[in-house]
Amino acid sequence: MKTSPSLLPLLRSRMQGELLALVLLHPDREYTITELAEACGVTPTALLREANRLAEGGILEERRVGRSRLVKARTDTPIYQPLSDLIAVTFGPMPLLGEALSDLPGVHEAYIYGSWAARYSGEPGPPPGDVDVLVVGSPDQDALFDLAEHASRRLGREVNVHRVTPEAWAATNTSDPFLTSVRERPLTRLKLSQEI
User: What is the pLDDT of residue 174?
Assistant: First the structure.
């Protein structure tokens, strides 16, 4: 039997949480099944089954264009806003931070670490109180601070951003206790648009 994800144990799977985060947090965008499958790291068949369940439940709407099937969030139901808020505070950091950091010059890579990454990887525990982000590169520190403030409001929890140089991150033998600690615990890489 599959265990439900530690970030939101009400859900059946992590893929369901990732799918809901993509679609609900971008309500004006339509996605193909293939786009969603690639973003969630699953097969189109697995994604299609979940999309069918969510469409039957009135959470997603769908339409066909030729042979393509497009899905998007249904925003005209009473459950949209509360469900969207719940998904934002649980699975929202991945798509929202990845998108925000993609627009910031000087970001080479970005990761979530700490309790959020631990829950995302399946470690049991209480809901994370904050989201810790490691940015590899040389973005402007003030811009990172502004990004963290905006993300904190959107995600309903504090977002802490720590910046390191690419050289420090690439070093295999480091005496930096912070980097050693980050590498020893669960680490979730954010998908930046330039990597897609």
Answer: 76
User: For the purposes of burial, counting CB atoms within 10 Å of the CB of 52, is it exposed (0-12), middle (13-18) or buried (19 or more)?
Assistant: middle
Q: For each of the domains in the chain, give its residue range(s) and CATH number, in order of start.
A: 14-90 (1.10.10.10), 93-195 (3.30.460.10)
Q: What is the C-alpha to C-alpha distance for residues 177 and 161, in angstroms, rounded to an integer?
A: 17
Q: Are 37 and 86 in contact (CB under 8 A)?
A: no
Which residue ranges in the chain fall short of pLDDT 50? 1-3, 196
DSSP H or E run through 17: helix 14-24
Tell me the two tokens of residue 101: 């950091």
What residue type is assigned to position 49 of the chain? R
Rounded (10°) angle between helices 93-102 and 141-155? 150
Q: What is the pLDDT of residues 91-110, one digit of tens each?
A: 999 999 999 999 899 999 99
One-letter amino acid of 59: I
**In whole angstroms, what is the distance from residue 154 CA to residue 162 CA?**
19
Cβ atoms 69, 89 nearer than 8 A: no
Would you state the pLDDT for residue 1? 32
